[in-house]
Specification:
Elements lengths: L27 E5 L4 E5 L4 E5 L7 E3 L10 E6 L4 E6 L6 E6 L3 E8 L9 H4 L4 E19 L2 H4 L4 E5 L2 E5 L4 E6 L4 E2 L4 E8 L3 E8 L11 H19 L9 H13 L1 E2 L4 E2 L22 E2 H14 L3 H11 L16 E2 L10 E2 L13 E2 L10 H17 L4 H17 L18 H21 L5 H18 L1 E2 L4 E2 L14 H4 L8 H14 E2 L2 E2 L17 E2 H13 L3 H12 L11 E2 L5 E2 L5 H18 L1
Antiparallel strand pairs: 1-2, 2-3, 3-4, 5-9, 6-7, 7-8, 8-9, 9-14, 9-15, 10-11, 11-12, 12-15, 13-14, 16-17, 18-19, 20-21, 22-23, 24-25, 26-27, 27-28
């Protein structure tokens, strides 16, 4: 039950400020407009919102610092039990407040611009919060306290024409409300009471660049609610999934769509930064960028369900960024880009923010952008292959880009790199990187043969076969009787679960079945899978981490393909119990079952879709 005097938990972790109040990461839902998102807590508070885009500085960031981050509180003003759910088949979020005297709800959504929307309206990034009393009567309270520039930029506040304007040097926001509000120097507050059938509307708009403040009366809020519902349902209607886990699969698809930046077609790995992989630890990263690998896997998952427009937008985004002259240290592509395609993502620490539950540092930017990760080429070309197969035949320009990538891979596949997990402990010859180089060449050869496209098939085939023999020789540990993390070592790594999924090895191959048994014994805890043991394989960072949810869903697929269907289905069903109340996942699961890391995580949701699809297919 929420007490309005203390709406958030007080929990203390090493290094945290005891007075800071935070909701658990999993106690949030997500809304967005395909340009940015907001996290809404189960207590009705928006504690993460960046404007005007995913990677802009935060306006509400109390999830990273309860005192300095800023928030938009909106809740019952009396003790209440809360429930949160999505309006069916949409990304419209509803938070209900059940009190002794009545039931109320807050409907949170962001209207989505389409091709008919004027540019100024698309740039408004309107965030609508509609409060409705559905039974009895309820007093509500609201506090709108933006803190611009990650809580570091000052702002002024003034009222005019029934609107309140928050102005900072880089961004201005206008708040309109259908109930009276009060202002102090920085914040807006209000208290109001609603009876059954009554409602109140709050709208927050960006008003820079010629966009003028505009109210949101009840009738307009109703129209925009209906239009937003219609948009999401129209998009989801293209799904061809009719399997056993339709609700979870569709929620994952809707989440992946929310993580898409419509102007460029980029997909962010997650919409947050620095939510900790370990409470009180330093494993806090900014995920608000496009990782080539993550986005390519997203394309695969969405294509499986029948969505092809996202795949085309992604192909266009990356094709324009392939350096066909060989590129820099990371090759023709970087491992990640800004959502607008920029290549510079300098990492810095925001020392004025304490971090979620005191988990410092808070980072923005990501220095991993300069790493060499050879596996991205396999993930990308596999998605191109599937788009060509299930979507539309790729264009000649796209094929030229693919050839440039494969030619580069043929020359550079044997380099040590930082690998899929972006270790900061030095480069190694990771098995997974070589596996995905093999995938890059093999899938390109398939496209060329099926389409009759020009390619150096003899040379490509020779390199492909060399990589295969190298993996089978150097990637196999006779001591562990398993394929291992990198050459000339005995460390196990969950990324090798991709070997049968990528069709590199038969799922019934004795060497693979022995590997699966070894992984189960060393890295699997009930249904949950660790990436690797950082004590055995140092990754350059201190502290422990939780189990990696994408690896857990890969494990389901590996069991499925090995014919161990009872284990696969039980593992999958157990994994579903770790989702939050809305079906959302962060990156990791702690040893106590809590969500850890940035939230929600695209990697996890795309792996859920793939595991459900393949398990359904085998079960019949």
């Amino acid at each position: 039950m929420i007490d309005p005097r203390h709406p958030r938990q007080t929990l203390t972790y090493p290094g945290s400020a005891g007075s800071a109040r935070y909701l658990p990461i999993a106690e949030h839902g997500l809304i967005g407009d395909l340009r940015t998102v907001a996290l809404v807590g189960t207590d009705g508070t928006i504690d993460w919102y960046c404007c005007p885009s995913f990677d802009s500085p935060s306006v509400f960031g109390s999830i990273l610092d309860a005192d300095r981050g800023g928030s938009f509180e909106l809740a019952a003003a009396v003790p209440a039990t809360t429930k949160q759910f999505y309006f069916p088949d949409t990304n419209v979020l509803i938070t209900r407040f059940l009190t002794e005297d009545g039931v109320g709800e807050v409907q949170d959504f962001m209207p989505v611009a389409d091709e008919t929307t004027a540019a100024t309206e698309a740039d408004r990034h309107r965030l609508i919060r509609r409060v409705v009393c559905v039974r009895g009567s309820i007093p509500f309270r609201a506090r709108i306290a933006p803190r611009f520039g990650y809580g570091a930029q000052p702002h002024t506040l003034r009222q005019f024409d029934n609107a309140t304007l928050f102005e900072s040097p880089d961004l201005s926001l206008a708040l309109t409300a259908t109930v009276p509000v009060e202002c102090d120097d920085l914040d807006v507050t209000t208290e109001f009471k609603l009876s059954q059938g009554e409602s109140a509307v709050f709208a927050l708009d960006r008003v820079d660049g010629g966009i003028e403040a505009r109210g949101c009366p009840h009738i307009e809020a109703e129209e925009q609610f209906a239009a937003t519902v219609a948009f999401w349902r129209s998009w989801l209607s293209a799904s061809q999934y009719r399997g056993r886990w339709r609700e979870m699969v569709h929620r994952s698809a809707l989440t992946l769509k929310l993580l898409t930046y419509a102007p460029s077609g980029a997909m962010v790995a997650a919409p947050t930064t620095s939510l900790p992989e370990q409470m009180g630890g330093e494993r806090n990263w900014d995920y608000r960028y496009l990782w080539v690998r993550d986005a390519a896997f997203c394309v695969y998952a969405l294509l499986r369900l029948g969505f092809s427009s996202e795949a085309k937008a992604f192909m266009d985004f990356l094709s324009a960024r392939v350096d066909r002259n060989g590129g820099g240290p990371s090759g023709p592509l970087q491992i990640m880009y800004g959502i607008d395609g920029r290549t510079e993502l300098p990492e810095r620490e925001l020392n004025h923010l304490e971090g979620h539950h005191g988990s410092a540092p808070v980072r923005v930017g990501n220095d991993a952008a300069g790493q060499l990760q050879l596996d991205i080429y396999g993930a990308l070309i596999d998605s191109v292959y599937l788009y060509d197969k299930w979507g539309q035949p790729i264009s000649s320009d796209h094929w030229d880009a693919v050839c440039a990538l494969v030619d580069w891979v043929c020359e550079h596949w044997d380099q040590p790199d930082e690998g899929i997990w972006e270790t900061r402990g030095g480069r190694k010859k990771f098995l997974y990187s070589r596996l995905m180089c093999w995938v890059a060449i093999e899938r390109a050869m398939r496209i060329a043969r099926r389409r009759g496209l020009p390619a150096e098939l003899t040379r490509w085939g020779h390199v492909r076969d060399t990589i295969y023999r190298r993996i089978m020789d150097k990637g196999w540990s006779a001591t562990r009787q398993a394929f291992v993390q990198h050459e000339n070592d005995n460390v196990l790594d969950a990324s090798v679960l991709m070997m049968p999924l990528a069709k590199f090895v038969s799922p019934s191959d004795p060497k693979w079945l022995s590997t699966l048994d070894a992984l189960t014994a060393d890295l699997v805890s009930d249904s949950l899978v660790y990436r690797y043991d950082p004590l055995v394989s140092p990754d350059g960072l201190s502290g422990q981490e939780g189990t990696f949810s994408i690896c857990s869903f890969w494990y389901v697929e590996a069991l499925t393909r090995a014919g161990r269907l009872d284990e696969a289905r039980l593992t999958f069903e157990k994994m579903l119990t770790y989702a939050n109340h809305l079906g959302l996942y962060a990156e990791e699961i702690s040893h106590t079952g809590e969500q850890q890391g940035n939230f929600p995580q695209a990697f996890t949701h795309l792996a859920l879709i793939s595991a459900a699809f393949n398990l359904d297919r085998v079960l019949g």
